[in-house]
Design goal:
single chain; Thrombin, subunit H; 0% helix; five-stranded antiparallel beta sheet; mainly beta; four-stranded antiparallel beta sheet
Length: 84
């Protein structure tokens, strides 16, 4: 599927969602090109794998989010595991 160009940058689809950059912020779209998580992150450290993505918030904190954009846990960069 081809998504019409309306984003500044885009990553590959992983687990059904692709990271996109719009006006300097990253979010996620589905395969229909619909924004499912609004652009609000500094970066996407790792796309979705089994329903979880690793992103960097505006304040620089790295967190794991679910497919709704809800924070699940703070990311431990060294181990790349969920931290309580």
């Amino acid at each position: 599927m081809v998504i019409p160009p309306r984003f500044d940058a885009a990553a590959d689809f992983m687990d059904g969602l692709a990271g996109v950059n719009l006006n300097g912020w990253w979010g996620f779209i589905d395969r229909d090109g619909q924004i499912v998580i609004a652009p609000q992150f500094n970066s996407i450290r790792e796309g979705f794998i089994e329903g979880v993505a690793w992103v960097e918030l505006r304040d620089g904190l790295n967190v794991y989010i679910n497919r709704k954009g809800e924070i699940l846990a703070v990311a431990n960069e060294k181990r790349r595991k969920l931290s309580p």
